[in-house]
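User: I need a structural model of Glucokinase from Sphingomonas ginkgonis for a docking pre-check later this week. Nothing fancy, just the predicted structure tokens so I can convert them on my end. Input:
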Amino acid sequence: MRPVMEGERPWLLIEASHEGAVRLATVSPSAQPHLGVVHEIGIAGIPTFTDVLQRFEREKNVPLSGLRCGIAIAGAASGETISLVRSRWTISRAGLEAVLGHPPVILNDVAARAWATRSGTANIVPVRGIGTPSFGRPGRYGMIMVEEGLGAAIVDVDRDSGARVLETEGGHMEFAPANEREERLAKAVRGTAAMVSWEMMLMLDRFDPLWSKALPELPEPDRARLQTGLLGRFAINLMHSFGAWQGMMITGSRAARMLEPGNRMAFDQEFSARRRFSRLVGAAPVWRVDQHEAVLAGIAQRLAQDRPSGLRAAA
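Assistant: Understood. Predicted structure tokens for Glucokinase:
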């Protein structure tokens, strides 16, 4: 039985990180919330984010006033006013609080996926090393998402098994070519831009004409292996910069394709190439993480952190 505070209303979970749609669900407050039906609203022709909320209120007969709400967005979840990256909308914390009656929790979608790993429902497969992430011991993990974009987050676990997820914009760090082949590809990808980012390199579709322009000698299957190697180098760079010696978790549909068995050696070669901190790197595992409705599940896990500690322990 999951204890619920008297008069406690459901939580509203909103995934606003996809292009063309907003996805919403409600869950009963709990230390381990369980998602029900997800409601998707196409945003074409809808003028504001508030109109989406009001439509959900009408169609699902769920009064918005008094709801605790978590919203996952693409990009940096910082500031009073936030532009939603994959739409024309801007949201404000004060405006949402006026509608809901509570300040919303707004987080990055990669951070939401990192929170979701604590739900115990993820499918976690080793890419290198053995075992699974242990959130019962203190330490630091990194999370990388490769899907509609490239993002990263940090998961800190303290001595009491409490967690904190730190958002980053690691995908927008500048890419540095390591050889002549990468330099040619990076120059083509950069085009007229001032610089080329890790996201630009790893999100390049393997059938993009830029490949033939920059690397005409490279067979199509080798394009995937080159990018998988870059993912390995990106992962080890983040492990060093984050201090995430307990391991790196990699998620997202594009990441799943990059980490297919035929490409794993390319990942491991780049990941293991560094000689500095070789003992730590050699022992560091990497996992591929797949989870149903990971972003919404992660929002729910984040809201669960704000429950009174007595209810969290009893649930």
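Before docking, keep this in mind: The first strand starts at residue 11 and ends at 15.
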